[in-house]
Design brief:
Order of helices and strands: HHHHHHHHHHHEHEEHEHEEHEEHHEEE
Radius of gyration: 33 Å
Structural class: alpha+beta
Strand content: 5-15%
Helix content: 40-55%
Number of domains: 3
Length: 449
Amino acid sequence: MIIIAATLGGPELAMLFVVFLLLVVLIFLAIAEMGLSQMTKPKAASIAERGSRAGPSLVRLVSEPERWVNPLLLTVNICQTVQATLTGIVAGRLFGGPGVAIGVALNVLVFFVLAEAVPKTYAIQHPERAALVTARPIRALAGFAPLQFMSRGLIGLTNIIVRGKGLAKGPFVSESELLGIVGAAADDDVIEHEERELIESIIEFGDTIAREVMVPRPDMAIVPNSASISSALDLAIENGYSRLPVFGPDETDVIGLAYTKDLIRAEREGQGGGSVLELTRPVRFIPENKPVNRLMREMQAGKFHLAIVADEYGDIAGLITLEDCLEELVGEIVDEYDVEEYTVQRLPSGDYIVDGGMSIDELNDIIAGTLPNDDWDTLGGLVFSTLEHVPTPGEEFEFEGWHFTALEVEGRRVRRVQVREITPPETDETEENTQPTRASKAAKAAKAT
């Protein structure tokens, strides 16, 4: 050390002192970056309400992250560039030719540990303290006019080089990141569990299509083309519906809707023997891949509550109502006339008895599974597709770590399925390196009882 100190002159010592100061600055900026990134608006507001002097600055920074993120990152980049240059110069004067390589190695080791890993780990462990300590200095840094001008100029240059819609608007948050933020807020008791579910439903609402929430064609109550007003009213009362689709002459297409209130009025006026076609109103048709969020806006604007869903060949696939769309946001809506059917039954053994019409996404939520839904939407579709034939009651197979048994089959529809998780077999110590294999296709594992 004495030899190194003797070798260094005044300029080299000054440069080392500057490098040390830059190290301190980078540590502070790393704590600020991670601490402020971990802070949420509700938590910042709560801190401010407790009377903390840094509270107002913290609320301002969290509310407008675009004002401080770019200036902070630019400052970090400047400090890293300057310290790396100075470290290289000093190392070159100390060790000659190999000094540059030595300086780079020391720079990466020291600054990664001290200016990145350690401060950011501290900020993750103590986010509130890190955010409070750094809030006011970072707000002052973000308000420094020359730094703001430089960061905006560089962002503008980036937008010229890489053109794209909304590049200057940032920052960008993906859907998965937003869901992660909501989950973290719920874990920290910032929001209630019910609020978390509603937010997640809203985020996922845009990815839902009509086919996923519609009433399928076999479950539709449809008025025959030749029906009288009285018989159509009986069908409406029997099913508890306010609107019923009406078949066309060949009973393969829907030509309109019969409103229950119109049927009741005609019945009271003594016209029950007339044809239901006299009261049929127009009906809307939509494709089965239409996004539900757009459909709901169209229903609100067009003032209609029911639409017929058609597949790519124009055949009737099902129907969807405004209530179906709303239930995707707020959950099932059951009134006093609905007969609530339990689609899932948990057995004492841990097995599940599941309705075949349940969606795969909903089933995954219940059983904490990861069953795929790329080629089918419902549990019945999974059973039918993997077996590649209409199952017989009692037929079973294994797929993705779960054992499925078709309990009830009506025609070609799988009504009820028993689902059981497969327990991995215990292996001896001599077989600990042997991994059990699983068939790539569930159909290969299908077997009849």
